[in-house]
Amino acid sequence: MKILIPILFCITLSGCDFSCSGKPKNTFKANYDENYAFEVIQKYEKFGPKVPGTEAHKNTGDWLVSELKRLGATVVEQTTTAVTFDQKTIPVRNIIAQYNPKANTRYLFSAHWDNRPFADQDTDPLKSHEPVPGVNDGGSGVAILLGIAKAVQGMDLPFGIDLALWDAEDWGSPHNPPSYCLGSQYWAKNPVPANYHAQFGINYDMVGRLGSVFPEENYSLKNAPEVIEGLHRAAKTLGYQDYFPTYKIGPIVDDHYYVRELRQFPMVDLIYMTQEGGFPPEWHTHLDTSEYISRDVLKVVGQTSLELLSEQK
Ligand SMILES: [Zn+2]
After folding, report:
1. What is the domain-level CATH number for residue 65?
2. 189-231, pLDDT tens digit by residue?
3. 3-class DSSP string for 138-195
4. Ligand 1 (ion): which residues have CB within 5 A?
């Protein structure tokens, strides 16, 4: 992804050092481990392009499930099939990792984990029909989610956290937005757990490249201004405000769009796009590798998200 289309509407536990159970209060905002996040990126890359229906896709999915379980999450898988714009029937495997699954108050963090089956932005015509590595476009969001899992594991949380790894986001046709985001579209219509609701959600897509900043995506701004504001506030607290400029981009039809439309809770998309409306030059090419991934950018995104979470009750 991404495709732009014109859309017509175009506790804290302050005051005590311990929670009710007597365990230390949550301090996870300080614990984002960007080195672990980068290890995730490297492992993700080694599997090869994660195109639905391939061995690399199956093996990566199995690894993600086992890693999230190792990090103490309750993992639920949702499998189905979908028909792509080019009439291929593909397996779809959404992976949902839950912390404190019984809590009613929940927060959702999501990213797609699949990779695009063709490098249609590649200047080499011989390569344009081959799948992309998708390390920023796929892997960076995965690294943010697993980093959050590592940061919150074992904590006595005052709320629930869900990490959703969407499948089949990137097998789409340019200028046909609904042909993308097949995994999140299916989940939004058939959520697991049933009747899923969160206080808010954040979707991450292309959030690891060197030099990335995260402007205000128009659909997010319209439907979840308080989350955008919260991210700006959290970034400022951490001294990361320059990474969250106030220029506008989009609207972008990404996974957050379908979740917001069908589940009706505020959801934003963190995605790097230049002020001129361009994605990184490696986007949908064979150059989207770990060579361009920045530990610092991963840390900014992960830590700002945890800072915002630490303000919630
Ligand atoms: Zn993409």
Report:
1. 3.40.630.10
2. 999 999 999 999 999 999 999 999 999 999 999 999 999 999 9
3. HHHHHHHHHHHHHHHCCCCCCCEEEEEEECCCCCCCCCCHHHCCHHHHHHHHCCCCCC
4. 1, 137, 170
Please say if the pLDDT value at position 262 is more than 80. Answer: yes
Residue 86 and residue 172: Cα distance in Å, rounded? 9
From ligand 1's centre to the CA of 266, what distance in Å? 23
pLDDT digits (tens, 9 = 90+) for 265-301: 999 999 999 999 999 999 999 999 999 999 999 999 9
**Ligand 1 center to 60 CA (angstroms):** 18
CB atoms within 10 A of CB 218: 17
Q: What percent of the chain stands above pLDDT 90? A: 88
Residue-number span of the structural domain to which 288 is assigned: 28-310
The alpha carbon of 61 and the centre of ligand 1 are apart by a number of angstroms equal to 18
Decide if 10 is inside a domain. no
CA of 273 to the centre of ligand 1 (A): 13
- 92 pairs with which residues across the strands? 80
